[in-house]
Amino acid sequence: MTTPALSPDDGLRAIDVLTVATVADVTPSVRRVVLSGTPAAVAAAGPTVNLLVPRVGDTAPRWPRVAKDGRIVWPDGAHGVSLRSYTARRQDPVAAQVEIDFVLHGDGPAAAWAAAASPGALLGVAGSGALGERAAAQLLLAGDETALPAISRILAAAPATCRGVALLEVAGAAEEQPLTAPEGLVVRWLHRGDTPPGESSLLADAVAALDPPDGDDVFAWVAAESAAVRAIRADLRGRWGLSRAQHHAIGYWRRGRAMSPAD
Ligand SMILES: Cc1cc2nc3c(=O)[nH]c(=O)nc-3n(C[C@H](O)[C@H](O)[C@H](O)COP(=O)(O)OP(=O)(O)OC[C@H]3O[C@@H](n4cnc5c(N)ncnc54)[C@H](O)[C@@H]3O)c2cc1C
């Protein structure tokens, strides 16, 4: 049985396509890509965003389209476009630009696309979501390089009275980035050194070494490699006694496995 060809009246809409404006390496392993689009497309591209990543060098990708219920409808046959989750570090609908930091981890269509990205390259957007943060008097933030864009947004939006700690795992000092944080929120960088990403227990150990804060107005936001997040989530639910509403702990990537938003 063949799938009928898509026609203009089939209820499907085109995806938003953004164009690379600039590319800059902010650290040895993080590449910042600034993308231009219509103000509406930029406003809709975050804070978390489902990216449609073309194969490196594909200047005319066969994009999917989007159904009324948000479902992505892929074209028949080979298309080479991959769906991946990222974070808009900054959205500026007035300048019609969105900024995304890609970890250049080597393998993977998104990392490869970012490593090769240059002005004029195209990137598709197929939906967006929330960061999952919540305002609280005391915050625990924990993440690796992939979570830095989200954590920088959360820190920048946190009220000046907020207290707590942000634990940030990176390879070394060269991977640290300037962050704006409330005075009472301590930012601690954890260096895993030569241990490959996803193989260190540094982040989970650092959370395990913290005493749970006093009081109920506590929120924890955690994103990193899935196994590290699992360990931290168990600690927060057990020893810290946090309810589901008091924490958001999500695996942002999985060691040894490709990861699209559908996984
Ligand atoms: C809501 C959300 C927001 C995210 N925001 C960002 C963001 O702003 N910036 C960002 O860089 N990432 C972000 N991520 C993580 C990103 O989606 C994953 O790293 C994704 O796997 C990258 O896709 P890929 O095509 O490069 O690699 P994939 O094809 O998914 O994976 C290929 C291989 O690379 C490995 N791999 C994947 N990521 C890493 C990594 N970071 N370090 C080492 N090995 C890795 C996998 O284990 C696999 O073996 C986010 C994830 C989620 C769920």
What's a quick, concise take on this entry?
This protein has helices at residues 39-44, 109-116, 148-157, 202-208, 226-237; strands at residues 13-14, 16-27, 30-36, 48-53, 65-66, 72-73, 82-92, 97-103, 122-129, 138-143, 163-170, 185-191, 218-225, 247-253. It has 263 residues and is α/β, with parallel strands linked by helices.
Outline the fold blueprint:
Layout: E1 13-14, E2 16-27, E3 30-36, H1 39-44, E4 48-53, E5 65-66, E6 72-73, E7 82-92, E8 97-103, H2 109-116, E9 122-129, E10 138-143, H3 148-157, E11 163-170, E12 185-191, H4 202-208, E13 218-225, H5 226-237, E14 247-253
Parallel strand pairs: 10-11, 10-13, 11-12, 13-14
Antiparallel strand pairs: 1-5, 2-3, 2-9, 3-8, 4-7, 4-9, 5-6, 7-8
The structure holds flavin-adenine dinucleotide.
Flavin-adenine dinucleotide is lined by residues 48, 82, 84-87, 101-103, 105, 107-111, 146, 149, 197-198, 252-259.
CATH architecture of the largest domain: Beta Barrel
Which class best fits the helix and strand makeup? Answer: alpha/beta
Give the CATH class of the largest domain: Mainly Beta
- Biggest sheet strand order reads 2-3-8-7-4-9
- How many β-strand stretches? 14
Helix content: 10-25%
Key features?
alpha/beta, Elongation Factor Tu (Ef-tu), domain 3, Rossmann fold, 5 helices, 16% helix, binds flavin-adenine dinucleotide
